[in-house]
Specification:
Elements: H1 2-31, H2 39-60, H3 69-88, H4 95-117, H5 121-134, H6 140-176, H7 186-209, E1 211-213, E2 216-218, H8 224-303, H9 306-323, H10 332-348, E3 353-358, H11 369-393, E4 400-408, E5 411-419, H12 446-456, E6 460-466, E7 469-477
Helix pairs in contact: 1-2, 1-4, 1-6, 2-3, 3-4, 4-6, 4-7, 4-8, 5-6, 6-8, 7-8, 8-9, 8-10, 10-11, 11-12
């Protein structure tokens, strides 16, 4: 009979270890990039190493509750998890500490909760003993078989809880923690580690002062059967709530950064409008002074002062150049934006080829000029940044920006093409490339702003890369935004 019990116990342990190995590769793989080429093979190796670690600990350092081996076993497991993540994942990030501690805490809490559930074995056995004492069960063999069945069923239920609970918790963490590439600071890391550390220390405390054998917990008071699972479940909820709260904090910071960028863009649009007014004012002033200018020209021509005449005409030509609109798209806001960017290009990248002759707007354009300015402003800023980076790396490289637009049915399309260094950094499951700027918390949201603006008009954003040419395509429905 003892051989049957041992076989059941070992089978349950093995299944729990395999399920924990699966959770480990899923949990780590959702946050970290694997070192191997294949994600599946990388995960299988990590899970296998974890199962081997648990088996070695079971054989070489069997858990004896109530002595220091409890702490030693957890410490060795923690070291093994750290080694595993370093071997199979690019784990030199702050979030690795959160992954290791949280994984160990959730697994320990789940196993402890499963042992609490396994306590139903005692009342079942009390019932069979009562039946035996009353004479309802007269066969010793039947009594032993009922014992065995009750034990197997209890162990199966214990295994189900120990397997299912971590799977649910880890999936919830992965779903709630959406910003997996977020650069975590020291204070933020402590905030994330706190719930897992508390849960893990509670498990160590309970395992030190309670005696557990074959999934059965021997307690001083039956009241602990209700208090302990309540504490452990609260620890799991604390971990999940902490992750959810942290993600909400990131979202609020993103919104704050987005508002800052939008405020800067509004200020830039106001500058564009002020420049337009300045240009119109200059044109009116030149019209007013045209008679005086013509008089000066005629006097210089009559006096034969050719050199003075050429200098005067040169200065007059430069004045006209400053007031000239180089772009006529049919949209005053866009014309001003392009003119401003053009003068910026002349100052910073004089050899950049800037083409906007195919950027035209229909007469009946329902899309607000402000929203078009947001899209083009962000797209041009990204394109200029890419061209500057390419020019810094390859001074002889040809750099260009090409703008175009067209209408197809009720949809209006904008395209921005620019040269770049050909290097695109994109994280797994990320919609847009990762910014190469140092401050990733502030930068890198230009494409997100473009997407949000496009969605106001039931549109979408797409991007492609080909032969060191980055193409951004924005589709908008020609109607009033929502």
């Amino acid at each position: 009979m003892n051989e049957v019990y041992d076989a059941v116990n070992n089978g349950v342990l093995f299944l729990v270890w395999i399920s924990q190995g699966y959770c480990l590769q899923y949990f780590y793989g959702s946050f970290l990039e694997g070192r191997g080429r294949g994600r599946t093979g990388n995960g299988v190796c990590a899970a296998a190493l974890y199962v081997a670690l648990k088996a070695c600990l079971k054989l070489c350092l069997p858990m004896e509750y109530g002595d220091k081996r409890t702490l030693e076993t957890h410490f060795i497991t923690l070291i093994g998890l750290t080694v595993t993540v370093l071997l199979f994942y690019k784990a030199f990030r702050a979030i690795t500490g959160f992954l290791v501690i949280t994984f160990l805490a959730v697994c320990e809490i789940s196993v402890f909760c499963a042992c609490i559930v396994g306590e139903i074995y005692s009342p079942i056995m009390d019932f069979w003993n009562w039946c035996m004492g009353k004479g309802y069960i007269r066969s010793v063999r039947l009594f032993e078989n009922l014992h065995t069945v009750a034990y197997i069923v209890t162990q199966m239920l214990l295994c189900a809880v120990a397997v299912a609970l971590p799977v649910v918790v880890f999936r919830k963490i992965v779903q709630n923690f959406r910003e997996k590439d977020y650069a975590i600071g020291r204070t933020e890391l402590l905030f994330l580690l706190a719930p897992g550390l508390v849960g893990l220390l509670i498990c160590i405390l309970l395992q030190t002062y309670l005696y557990i054998e074959n999934g059965q917990i021997y307690m001083v008071s039956p009241l602990l059967l209700f208090i302990i699972p309540a504490i452990l479940l609260l620890c799991l909820l604390f971990i999940l709530s902490d992750v959810r709260l942290f993600q909400d904090m990131i979202d609020r910071n993103r919104e704050k950064s987005s508002r800052i960028i939008l405020e800067k863009q509004v200020g830039s649009m106001q500058e564009h409008i002020a420049e337009m007014e300045h240009m119109y004012s200059g044109i009116r002033g030149m019209k007013h002074d045209m008679k005086n200018s013509l008089t000066v020209i005629m006097q210089l021509a009559d006096s034969g002062s050719n050199e003075e005449l050429r200098d005067y005409l040169s200065g007059l030509s430069q004045t006209f150049d400053r007031l000239e609109f180089h772009f006529k798209t049919g949209n005053a806001v866009v014309d001003t934006l392009l003119n401003t960017k053009y003068h910026e290009i002349l100052r910073t990248l004089p050899d950049l080829q800037f083409h906007a002759d195919r950027l035209l707007f229909p007469e009946k354009l329902m899309i607000q000029s402000y929203d078009i300015g947001i899209i083009l402003g962000n797209a041009l800023d990204n394109a200029l940044e890419a061209c500057k980076k390419l020019k810094a790396e390859e001074p002889e490289a040809k750099i260009f920006i090409r703008l175009s637009s067209y209408v197809k049915g009720k949809m209006f399309f904008l395209e921005v093409e620019n040269s770049f260094d050909g290097e695109v950094v994109r994280k797994r499951d990320a919609e847009f490339p990762v910014t190469t700027k140092a401050d990733k918390k502030v930068h890198g949201i230009g494409l997100i702003n473009i997407k949000n603006t496009a969605e106001k008009y039931h549109g979408a954003v797409d991007w492609t890369v080909r032969n060191k040419v980055f193409t951004l395509s924005v589709m908008l429905k020609n109607e009033r935004g929502i």
